[in-house]
Amino acid sequence: MTALSKELPIDMLYPLNEAALISKTDLNGVITFVNKEFCRILGYSEEELLGKTHVFLNSHVHSTEFFQAMWETIARGENWHGEICNRSKSGQLYWLNTSIFPILDKTTGQVQSYIGIRFDITEKKRLESELQSQKMQYDSVIESTDGFWQLNSEGRFIDVSECYCRLSGYSEKELLGMMISDLEANDHKGDLMYQISTLSGTTSDAVNSKVFESMHQRKDSTHWFVEILISYYPNHNNFYVFLRDISKRKLNESEQSALQQQLNHLQKLESIGRLTAGIAHDFNNILASILGYNELNKYAAEDMPDSSLKTDILHNSEQVEVAGSRAADLIKKMLTYCRQDEISKSDTTIELTDVLRKILVMLQEILPSSITIETDFLENTYVTIDETDLYQIIVNLFVNARDALNKTIGTIKLGVSLVDSPPQVCSACQEKINGKFVEIKISDSGSGINADKLSRIFEPFFTTKEVGKGTGLGLSVVSGIIHKMDGHIIVESEIGKGTTFQLLLP
Ligand SMILES: Nc1ncnc2c1ncn2[C@@H]1O[C@H](COP(=O)(O)OP(=O)(O)OP(=O)(O)O)[C@@H](O)[C@H]1O
Ligand SMILES: [Mg+2]
User: Fold this and answer.
1) Which CATH number fits domain 145-245: 3.30.499.10, 3.30.450.20, 3.40.1280.10, 3.40.190.10?
2) How far is the CA of 468 from the centre of ligand 2 (A)?
3) Which of 13, 218, 255, 493 is the most buried (most CB within 10 A)?
4) Ligand 1: which residues within 6 Å by Cβ?
5) What is the pLDDT of residues 142-188, one digit of tens each?
C-alpha cells in the first residue's frame, strides 16, 4: 500500500484498490505486496502469498514461451498487457486482464520492481467461450442441412446459408431480394406462405414447428424436391427454416411406383387374357352346337307343310342365326385379343400412305356423310407392319371417332409424319419413351374422354357404349398390335373438343 500511495493521488487510489487485483514483485518475481482484492479472488491470505513467486498460481493454460515473452518485455522496462489465466487456492481458474508495469529507478533508470494490475474477466471469458461453442453448434447444424433460411413474417429472407445458394444457383444477394414464393415450382407456389400463416396464427409464446415436402425451382428453372422444417419463434416474429434435398428419394419412389404400376397392369392384362381365352374357347363350342341344332330345326321346319307355325319357326331360327353371327363376331374379337401373344412380328415393309388411302376408301362406306375426313401425309413413309393389322388399327380408331362424333357434323384427321418424340410416357403401357418414330395421328372433333376414363380406355372390355354397341376390345387390340411392332400410343383428349391418338412406330 505504501509503495503505491507514494506515486498515486489518494482519491484515485481507492477505487483502483477496490476494483483491481494489485501486486508488486521484485526483479525475480517474488511477491512483496498484494492488495485485498488479490487475496479475495485467488483465495490466499497475504501471508501465504508474500515471499512466493507467481509460479504457484500457474494454471498451465499458457505456454512457457508466453511467460518468457512477458518477462523479456518487462525486463526491458516496457509495460506488458495481456490476459492471464490463474489458478486460485480452491483450484478454480480465473481469467485476469493483466498489465505489468516495470518501476524504474529515477536516477539509474534501471528496473527496480514490477507492479501488476489485474481485472477479473472470468465471466466475460465464460460467456465468450459459451457463445463460441453455441456458434460452432449452430454452424455444424446449418452445415449438415442442404439449406437454411431465416425469414420475416412476410416471407422475406433475412439470412440464407451458403449451401442453399449453391444448391439453388442463386447468390446470397439475389436471394435476399426475393420472396420465398419465387423459389417454389409453379404447382407448389404458396406452400411455405401457407405454413407461415398457420404457424404465426398461434397465440402461444412457444416455438412452433412443422415439417412438409415441397418442390422448388432452381435459377436454371430445373426442379428439386425439398423437405422443409420450419420453426416459428413468436418472440422474434421470425421463422427459421431448414431444408433437405430429397430429389433422389422422390425419383426412386416415383420410378418404383411407375414400375409397380406397369407390373400390376401387365398382370391384370395377363389374367384377363387367360380368362377371355377360356370363355371364348368354351363359348365357341357351345355356340357351334346352338347354331348346329338351330340349323337342324330350320331343315325340319322347311319340310313342314305351310302353316303359321312353320313361318314362326323359320323366322325364329333366322333370328337365332343373326344373334349367333353377332356372338361369333364377338368371339372372333375376343380370340384376336387373346391371341396377340401369338401374333408374330411382321416382316413385310409397306409404304404407309398407299395402304392408308386404300383403307380410307373402304372406310367411306361405314362413315356417315356428316363426317369430313382430312389427310396430311408425308409420302414415301415405310414401316414394317402387316397390312391387315394396320387395317384393324385404323378401322377401330375411325369407328371410335365416328361414335365420339355421335351423328353430329365433325372432322376426323389422319396424318402421317416423322417425329422426334420428347421424353414422355406411353398412354397404354406406361413405358418411358423418346426418340424418332413414324407417327400416324388420328384426331377427331368428338366428345372427348374425361381424365378418369382416359386412364382405362386400353383395358380390355372397358367400354362406355351401351350393351351390344361396344365390347371394349377395340383399343386393346390396337394397343396389342402397336406394341407387338415395338411401337407406342399417346392419347390426348379434351372434353367437348375431341381426341387425338398418336401411334408411334419405330
Ligand atoms: N375417339 C374417341 N373419343 C371418345 N371416346 C373414345 C374414343 N376412342 C375410345 N373412346 C372410349 O374408349 C372406350 C374403349 O374403346 P374401345 O375401342 O376399346 O371399345 P369400344 O369402342 O367401346 O368397343 P369395341 O371397339 O370393342 O366395339 C370407348 O367405349 C369410349 O368410351
Ligand atoms: Mg372401339
Assistant:
1) 3.30.450.20
2) 12
3) 493
4) 396, 400-401, 404, 444, 446-447, 449, 457, 462-465, 470-476, 499
5) 777 888 889 888 888 999 988 899 999 999 999 998 888 899 998 88
